[in-house]
Each structure stands twice: as structure tokens, then as C-alpha cells.
What we know:
Elements: H1 2-10, H2 16-34, H3 38-60, H4 63-66, H5 68-86, H6 97-109, H7 119-130, H8 134-142, H9 146-170, H10 175-179, H11 183-190, E1 206-209, E2 212-215, H12 226-244, H13 249-265, H14 269-286, H15 294-318, H16 334-340, H17 343-347, H18 349-355, E3 378-379, E4 382-383, H19 389-419, H20 426-445, H21 457-471
Antiparallel strand pairs: 1-2, 3-4
Helix pairs in contact: 1-2, 2-5, 3-5, 3-9, 3-11, 6-19, 8-21, 9-12, 9-13, 12-13, 12-14, 12-15, 12-20, 13-15, 14-20, 19-20, 20-21
Amino acid sequence: FLIALTASLATPNPNLALEIGLAVGVLGVVALATISRLEVTVTIIALYLGMIDGPLKLMVASQAASSIRDVVIAAVSIGAITRLLTKRERVSFPPLSGWVAVFVGLVLIEATNPHTTGLTKIIGGFRQNLEWIPFFFFGYTLVRTKARFQKFFIILGVMALANGLVSAYQTRLTPPQLASWGPGYAERVNGNVTGEPGTGGVTGRKYVSEGVERVRPMALGSDSGFGGGVGLIALPGTLALLATKRRRRWVATLLCLGALLAVATCLGRLQVVGSVIAIFTFVLLSLSAGRRVTRPLGALLAVAALALPLGALFVSSEGAGVFSRYESIQPNSVVETSTTYKEQALTMIPHYISKDPFGFGLATAGPAAAFGGSSSGVLEGHGITAETQYNYVVDELGAPGLLLWLALTIQIIVLVIRRLPRIANVDIRIDLAAVFAVFIAYAAMGLRGAFSDTASGGPFFWFAIGIAAYWLAGPGRKADARGQVPAT
């Protein structure tokens, strides 16, 4: 603080508020690096990503604000590594670490791709492809007991509820009203696309229904659909809470309804379809619980019984026009919608690989495409597409990256199918079903949109793989019926 104060006094036109903010930020980073309880610091990261990161970036519209999350994650990671090394104990890497190491290696090698133009593109590409890797180790280290699963789902539920409430409020706003929240909000609402290849930009998050211009809510994220993404992740977990929690089930019920609200009001068709897939997959995976499968099914029916009348009341107060974007995913066409949408982008993958088998360079696609200037990702005079997760991986890492991503995803799904029924503790089995129902939903959603570069899908993807490394490929496989792992 004294250093910041001295710097402000030495400046001709000091900005005391900025200096104090920087000082507080430095103290916060030091605290995150020194707090010994990893579960506390990772919870802080989760709450920041789920409720603070988006509004801060959109209100300030500064690259410095966008970098705060990277500093926070780095501080926690460095602190954890430092404490591990100071113990002077034998360090062993978790199962599945080889997959992570190869992925990191591919990203690092991509810096030598001739299409990666300059240091800023390298930094941007490293950031968007590697910033979530620490969550693999967080998932492996932290979620090892039934109590930790419950805390994990409660944190997700709280974030989903908060996003749902904000999203519901934003559906009542006109585009100019939401744009007035800050320069970043104005850019998202109105868009800034120039139409020139390789220049990037975002399209306006507006639509017209019944002759009225409406906005697609950002909730507590930095783009539309974020609230639905958080709700999608939280929904199976809150259902698992209802199925396994013995006391205060009203809390789990409230969080579950909050997750449903977040999904419903995000006005994102992808998130709604993904939530349907996640719930259906959760029920299927819960079948391994045998006769006790009635618990998650009963929880699902109870939530549905509450959600239907509350949903009807909400629609009557908001007006059906708010939800007109969902007309293309009505029950009679949801399967068709989820399998045919954006097929054209997927068909471009073989063509992209044939032209540039090792990708178009780092920071060609995704949020970092505009970092360090316009992207050079142009093929035959047209900008390349990253409309799906698999297009995005091909653009950034080429055919090797796509093969690795598909192989890793299949490996996790195979582990779930083969080893989930062998988990002796039924409650933990249901908890794992909730985690990997979302993972499988993301694998399907990847056919329609990229998720690994988002503040919800990216961390969860690697966090879930870390959980799989412990429970399906590591020590958790030996847990007894009480969920306890024998000491080694």
C-alpha cells in the first residue's frame, strides 16, 4: 500500500482510487498465494468466475480487467505448487496427467506455427487454451469425499441462482437500458462486427419478437447465455443434492429451481438442449444405483412439480414473446435441432485439415482472435469458422489437437461407463453421475458450439477430468461403501 501511495504522490495527476485498487489487488493476490487451504482459494476463484468476472469486464471494458482472472488462478496455482515442494515429499502426478501433458505440449508447439503471428498472438493463444489446465489438478485434489461433492454442488447452485435472478431481471430491460450498464454491455448488445475477414468482432445480442426489440441476457457473465451455462452445470448437481442430502432439502430444492431459472432465462437454445441432455444422462447413469435410483428420479419429479406452475407464472408476467427464441427447440423437434444445427461448420473440418493439418495458428479463433490485432485466420479469402468446439480445436491445434481432444473425451466416457457402477458408495455414485452427465452433455454440445474457451465450460471440463482421475482411474476406485479410501 505504501508503494502504491508513494507512486500516486509522485505522479503529476494521481488517480488515488486506481492506486488503492491496485494495492488491494496486490494484497489479494498475495493472500491467495499464501492461504494454505486450497479448497478456500479455489472456491474464491469459482465465485469470481461465476459472478464477478463478467460484470467487471463489461462495466470497465478494459484488457486489464480481463486479465484479473488469470492473475488469480496463477496466484492460487503457484501457492499450491510452492507448498507442495516445501513439504519435500515424493511428488507423483495424478492418473490421466499424460493426456494433460500432451495437450499442453501441442499448445506450446503451436507457437512455432508460421500462422501464429507475433508474441501477442502467442500470449493470447496460450491464455485461452491453457488457463483452465490447473482445474484438472484442483478437481483431483479437492473432490475426494461425499461432503466435498455436496459443497461443490452447493457452490454451483448458489452461482446458478444468482445468475438466474440477474438474467430474469435483464429479460425485462430494453437493449438501450442494458447497454447503459457499461461500455462492454453496449458492445455486446449492439455488436461491433465490421464484416471484413479476419477482423473478428461480436454480433449484437438482440432479437425481435412480436415487433418488440429484446436483448439476450448476459446474467453475471461477459456474454449472452452465460447464466444458462452455469445453470446447466449446476442442474444435475442440485438434483444429486436432493437425492443424497438427508437434511435441509429445501436448500437443494431452491438451488435446483435457481438452476432451472438460469437456463430458462438465458434465451440460449444450446444451453437448453444441453440441459435436457444432461438431465437425461444423469438419470441413465443413476440407474447403476439399483433400487436406490428412485431417489434421483423422485428428486427430478419433485422439482418438475414445482417448476411447472412457477414457470407458467413467470411466463404470464413476462409475456410469451420473451421466449420466442425457443420455438425451434420444441419437444417435437429438439432431437432434430440438436443434431442438424451448424452441420455446415462441421463439414468444413476435413477441408481445413487438408489445407493446414497443423492448424491456423494460436489466437486464430475464440476470444483471443482480436488480441494483438486482426487474426490471420483466413482461408481462400474467407474467415475460418469456430462455430463448434471441434472446429475451434482444429483452428487452434490442427489435426493432432482434434485427435487428442476426441480421444480424451472418449477415454473419460469409457471410464464412466465401465467404472461408475463399481463405486461402492451409492451416494458418491450418484454424485459422480451428476458430474459426468454434464461432461457428456458438453461432448454433445460441442457439435453446436465451442465451450472450452468460456468461463463456465472451460474450468468445468478440466475439473471433471480431474475428478475422473481420482475416482475412476486413481485411488477413489478402492473406496469402500462409506466412501473411504484405504491409506497407502
